[in-house]
Specification:
The chain is mostly helical. It has one domain. It contains 7 helices and no strands. This is DUF2938 domain-containing protein. InterPro entries: DUF2938 (IPR021329).
Length: 165
């Protein structure tokens, strides 16, 4: 497989997996469970561009122009980056013969990013420790990232049907 084909497949797998995760989050939201507002991710990243990396509460930080668009862009770019991480660990052969366990493992491992970096920097504390229901939030994050991992597998399998092995 050429580098260009591999890059396109990684982009499609990461985008597809992120879409699966967003469908999951939409279902959770309809069931009354709070989900992440990606405008706040955009606000966080926007403030980083001005030298501020941590906040007491990102929701109370000054809004950033275009924060919703920026947040969603960062969200999907992160999904692509995580798909690239999966391929880096498994090799490009995984794209032609996807299996669930590596995708699920990488998906679950990516929960470290929000728990160790995003949540503390956005004011929620280490692993959501400053939220009203830390354990519930941790489990919800873990489940969402497991869904993302399953989404990488599902996207790769679907891609095989269109692209071929």
């Amino acid at each position: 497989m050429g580098v260009f084909d591999e890059a396109i497949k990684i982009i499609l797998v990461g985008t597809g997996a992120t879409l699966v995760m967003d469908i999951w989050s939409s279902i959770l939201k309809r069931l009354g469970n709070p989900t992440l507002d990606y405008a706040l991710v955009g606000r966080w990243v926007g403030h980083m561009l001005h030298g501020r990396f941590a906040h007491e509460a990102i929701g109370r930080a000054s809004p950033i122009a275009g924060e919703r668009w920026l947040g969603w862009t960062v969200h999907y770019a992160t999904g692509v980056l995580f798909a690239a991480l999966l391929v880096a660990f498994t090799g490009s052969g995984w794209l032609d013969n996807p299996t669930l366990l590596p995708a699920l493992s990488v998906g679950v491992a990516t929960v470290a990013f929000p728990m160790l970096i995003m949540q503390p920097a956005m004011g929620a504390g280490f692993a959501a420790s400053h939220t009203p229901t830390p354990m519930k939030n941790r489990l919800r994050s873990l489940a969402t990232h497991a869904v993302f991992g399953c989404g990488m597998y599902l996207a790769a399998v679907c891609l095989l049907g269109f692209w071929g092995g």
